[in-house]
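Annex B. Sample input.
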Amino acid sequence: MANYIELTAADGFIFPAYEARPAGPAKGAVVVLQEIFGVNAHIRAVVEGFAADGYLAVAPATFHRVKPGVELGYTPDDVAAGVALKAAVEGLPPPGVLPDIQTAIDYAAQANGAAKVGLVGYCWGGLLVWRAACTLSGVSAAVPYYGGGMTGAVEVARTPRCPVLAHFASQDPSIPLAGVEAFKHAHPDVQVHLYPASHGFNCDHRSAYDATAAALARERTLAFLTQHLA
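Annex B, continued. Sample output.
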């Protein structure tokens, strides 16, 4: 069962989230954080995939504070629009959209009987997962995929409050390998995996999709979630 719900952040801001529930009792909860393309068909499929694997899953619309109803594709124009929307959100006064993510975490935990909550995010969502793992409460595991900006000095200086599994791509021009190595050196407790693929390798709607890398990353992600959300 999947549908949109409305959540209310601590400051009263109301925003939508896409939720899917498993057929039987959930073994945990997962908050999915979108790329720069909104809660589009791909992100909804990811949410439904986690539900099929036994998790209550929810994806908050993290663009909603700057523009509601964003659902982009992957054309050059879509990329440009997504980059502009990301910049607008990043330009919000602190703490930006982190309260919305905290609300989604709290909702996911309570909707599943105070279950443990994991975070999984892609691209910009991967960066938000890292920030949430370092600053928010109620997170038992965090899995950023090719988090753009994660390897910058400001982000590397953060300290995670929960176990983190990070997926990067060796052929990703937006995340230089030197930055990945610096991140690994600064965070030896973070499990870092590097794949011979490009940025966006998990998304089967993009030309960068790599089925082998996506399958291996998903296998590792599910094992990590099982370990920390049980």
